[in-house]
Amino acid sequence: MSYLAKNYNRKKISFKYGKGSYLYSLNGKKYLDFVQGIAVNSLGHAHPKLVNVINKQAKKLWHVSNAFIIPEGEKLARKLAQKTFADYVMFQNSGTEATEAAIKIARRYFFSIGKPKKNRILCIKNSFHGRTLAAIFASGSKKMTEGFGPKVDGFDHFEFGNHQDLKKSITNNTAAIMVETIMGEGGIKVIPDWCLRELRKICNKKNILLILDEVQCGIGRTGDFFAFDKSRVKPDIVPIAKGIGGGFPIGAVLMNKKVGSCMTSGTHGSTFGGNPLAMSVGNAVFDIISKKKFLKNIKYLSEYFFLNLNNLKEKYPKIIKEIRGKGFLIGIQLHTNQINFINKLMDQKLLTIKAAENVVRILPPLNVKKKELDLALKILNKVCLSYD
Ligand SMILES: Cc1ncc(COP(=O)(O)O)c(C=O)c1O
Description:
binds pyridoxal-5'-phosphate, Aspartate Aminotransferase, domain 1
């Protein structure tokens, strides 16, 4: 009997250890892990540089309060600011804290310029921004909010891809539009670059802040540091998490100077956020992922993978409906039942995870090898074939 609460329907498997793209189960089986903690282990399991860094830091200093200057955090914030649109960074521990902080910053900004009524956040219906009370009501999903009332007010919603609905939903009280650049849980739905540019234009025209949630799609996942990089759009606020910690819980909010200046002393805080242990790992992850050559390789290998996934789709049109995503944030939308398909892949020692709209999500580590992608393709082919 398990004393853990029943809020997860867990698969009946546990792992002893992981190495790179592979997980090794307690009963001695080897799995190709294309879940990677849901886009968290960006460099796979037990990356030697991360193991080394965490061991070294663990012997020096784990935690001090944010009441003191933390050099490792200063260093990572500087790197993130120099690499991106951001002027300021605020560290948290998870994605949902980062999105929640993003909402707070947007509201606080308008408060600080004497427009406290401009406090509503416009989001995509059935998006995913995390599990805190504000984040579930931001997501606008019936399933996630059911039973958790009273409703947290201050959020409006529009349908993904419905530009009329978006424009109609903006009011004088809209403080920010918050969207995932690529909807992860929602079924790997990419917002095209031209839409991001239009969004920016609308925000500029109506004095609205643009929040791009890069918790799942950011930190190299698409082959660019941020999924919005190619669009050349500059958001005002960007929550990140998952990949930046490579498995260590780190969240952060990146912001420009305009909004950042409203976050004065005492306006927000976090006991654990940005502690030396987390920051030393974050620095090591950043140093690897931010390299041009590393990002280029993600693009190169993911293009190869996408090409082959689309070939599979041609080969099995009754099973595969659509291949979605960018880089190593991949969705296979099926005609057939997604759970059965995922279980069959697991029987063949390939781990994947579901997303909405009957999508099988594939999230290899960003340093995956070509031969591992080939193995996944072979298993996918075998499972598709089993339906004949
Ligand atoms: C886009 C997005 N935002 C926020 C979150 C919440 O992150 P966390 O689970 O770390 O709180 C997630 C998690 O999947 C996410 O995908």
